[in-house]
Amino acid sequence: MVDLADYAITSNRESGYGRYDIMLKPKEGKNLPAIIIEFKVHDSNDGKDLAATVLTTLKQIEERKYAASLITEGVSKKNIREYGFAF
């Protein structure tokens, strides 16, 4: 991710009601989407499969409003991509 020169990359900062894992905000003048990434470790003992863990991760992004700081800075909600990864 360090090679993504068109983005300002931040990690574990507060936004909304929690702390996101990674946020990529396009640098000024760049017409690129902003990206929020959240990671979860899959617990095989909870009865869920890997796909369910991903859905939980995406739900967390929405419920905790991680996009709030981007929206406050003027990034359109339609220009924000949210990705959840489970491993």
Gyration radius, to the nearest Å? Answer: 14 Å
SSE succession:
EEEEEHHE
Q: How many runs of DSSP E, i.e. beta strands?
A: 6
Structural category: alpha+beta
**Main sheet properties:** 4 strands, mixed
Ends apart, CA distance between termini: 19 Å
What fraction strand?
25-35%
Biggest sheet: strand arrangement: 1-4-5-6
Low-confidence stretches: none
Mean pLDDT: 90
Number of helices: 2
Q: Give the quaternary arrangement of the chains.
A: single chain
How much helix, percentage-wise, in residues? Answer: 10-25%
Account of the protein in words:
Helices cover about 20% and strands about 30% of the residues. It is an alpha+beta fold. The strands form two sheets. A four-stranded mixed sheet has the order 1-4-5-6. Strand 2 (about 15) and strand 3 (about 20) form a beta hairpin. The longest helix is centred in the middle third of the chain and has 14 residues, at about 50-65. The protein is elongated. The relative contact order is 0.25.
